[in-house]
């Protein structure tokens, strides 16, 4: 590793100002700082002393996402094996099926190895496309603006595949992450300037641009022709019985976007984010309180025609992308509120809106994505309310 570090450092002069590769300095800087700690340090006392910088913050989010990724690998393969068993098929007519047969693993829902390998064959290609296409746009904009390539894309590139269905076409992955990075972030000025979560922006674009291919009952299991509604969709359909238990929904053994199904994995991630100070516990708690209060109100009102009125808070917690959105999307430090009071109102707004969308509009049972994006838009306004209030208090104190 010492040899590699010395080799990289020797190439730096080519990328510095005046060098023949000056335009590609952001790419060099990204590679060097990703592999090794920066050698640039302060020579005198600094104003802020903190072990947490942007790189460490982003890496900590990646660590917190590991349980969700592992569950995505297992459950994607598990749901595919369950579908094969129900259809009476012995293999998958795709390149993934050919790989499984070549490895001699077989298709068995009771086999941990079979589930994880099969799930990996669906998840990692989507992740690779996301990294390649999204990384391309990051390099392009960083090169043009002569900025460094920020580590924030590491998180976006992992979040986006986790909120996608397993059988999404790769060209849609490329289109979605392109929209999320370019329109959701770069047009605002890049990292720290965007008002919307880039991963959610890309997912929302795909949902409204290709609703027939990105939603419905056939997209949640990685087997062509197999149709199975998510528990949330089953609740919304008056003619359909819920076939999944609360415990299965909590663990994550249900159809859905690959990384959103396991509430347990999200809770583990929440503990990591809160313990390290990366994620705001105020936002997470206020989202939960908003959801509980609104769902209890609808439970009290009741409805003879809309079964969503009867969904209790404990079920809202484990259905759809509520837990994943609460822990990893709503707490995005750039697009979320940053004042203490703003965080509470921001979280409450998300918790209230997600239940309103799920219950009042049963034709669109999943409301977490829209709730967070809507709250992203209002986050600066919420912060401004508390900033202005603080300014008035200080002025009054100085006058007195």
In percent, how helical is the residue content? Answer: 55-70%
How many DSSP helices?
18
* Biggest beta sheet summary: none
Quaternary structure state of the chains depicted: single chain
Derived structural class: mainly alpha
Order of helices and strands: HHHHHHHHHHHHHHHHHH
Distance between the termini: 63 Å
State the low-pLDDT regions, or none. none
Our Rg estimate from Cα atoms comes to 23 Å
Q: Report the β-strand fraction as a percent range.
A: under 5%
The total of beta strands comes to 0
Q: Could you say which overall geometry the principal axes of the C-alpha atoms support?
A: globular
How many structurally independent domains?
A: 3
How would you describe the overall organization of this protein?
- The protein is an all-alpha fold.
- It has 3 domains: 34 residues, no CATH class; 176 residues, no CATH class; 117 residues, no CATH class.
- Helices cover 64% and strands 0% of the residues.
- The chain has 18 helices and no strands.
- α6 packs parallel to α8 and α13 packs parallel to α16.
- The mean pLDDT is 85.
What would the keywords be for this entry?
about 400 residues, mainly alpha, 3 domains, 18 helices, about 65% helix
Protein topology:
Elements: H1 2-10, H2 12-15, H3 25-35, H4 54-87, H5 95-103, H6 112-145, H7 152-162, H8 170-182, H9 198-209, H10 211-214, H11 231-236, H12 246-251, H13 263-275, H14 281-301, H15 313-318, H16 322-329, H17 340-360, H18 368-399
């Amino acid at each position: 590793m010492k040899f590699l570090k010395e080799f990289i450092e020797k190439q730096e002069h080519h990328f510095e100002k005046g060098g023949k590769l000056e335009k590609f300095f952001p790419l060099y800087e990204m590679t060097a700082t990703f592999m090794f700690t920066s050698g640039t340090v302060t020579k005198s006392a600094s104003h802020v002393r903190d072990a947490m910088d942007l790189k460490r913050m982003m890496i900590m989010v990646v660590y917190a996402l590991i349980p969700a990724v592992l569950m995505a690998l297992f459950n994607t393969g598990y749901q595919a094996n369950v579908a094969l068993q129900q259809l009476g098929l012995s293999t998958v007519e795709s390149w993934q099926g050919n790989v499984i047969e070549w490895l001699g693993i077989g298709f068995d829902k009771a086999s941990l190895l079979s589930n994880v390998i099969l799930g990996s064959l669906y998840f990692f290609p989507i992740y690779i496309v996301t990294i390649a296409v999204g990384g391309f746009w990051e390099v392009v904009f960083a090169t043009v603006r002569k900025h460094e390539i920020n580590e924030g894309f590491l998180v976006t590139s992992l979040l986006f595949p986790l909120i996608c269905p397993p059988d999404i076409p790769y060209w849609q992955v490329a289109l979605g992450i392109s929209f999320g990075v370019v329109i959701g972030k770069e047009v605002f000025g890049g990292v720290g300037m965007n008002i919307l979560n880039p991963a959610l922006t890309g997912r929302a674009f795909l949902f409204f641009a290709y609703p027939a291919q990105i939603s419905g009952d056939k997209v949640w299991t990685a087997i062509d022709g197999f149709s199975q509604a998510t528990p949330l969709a089953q609740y919304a359909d008056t003619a359909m019985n819920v076939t999944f238990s609360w415990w299965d929904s909590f663990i994550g053994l249900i159809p859905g976007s690959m990384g959103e199904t396991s509430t347990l994995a999200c809770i583990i991630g929440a503990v990591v984010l809160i313990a390290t100070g990366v994620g705001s516990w105020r936002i997470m708690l206020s989202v939960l309180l908003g959801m509980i209060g609104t769902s209890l109100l609808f439970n009290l009102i009741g409805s003879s025609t809309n079964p969503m009125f009867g969904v209790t808070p404990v079920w809202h917690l484990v259905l759809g992308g509520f837990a994943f959105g609460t822990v990893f999307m709503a707490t995005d430090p750039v697009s979320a509120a940053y004042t203490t009071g703003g965080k509470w109102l921001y979280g409450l707004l998300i918790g209230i809106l997600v239940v309103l969308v799920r219950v009042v509009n049963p034709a669109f049972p999943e409301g977490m994505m829209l709730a967070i994006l809507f709250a992203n838009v209002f986050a600066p306004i919420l912060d401004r309310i508390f900033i202005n209030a603080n300014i008035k208090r200080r002025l009054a104190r100085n006058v007195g």
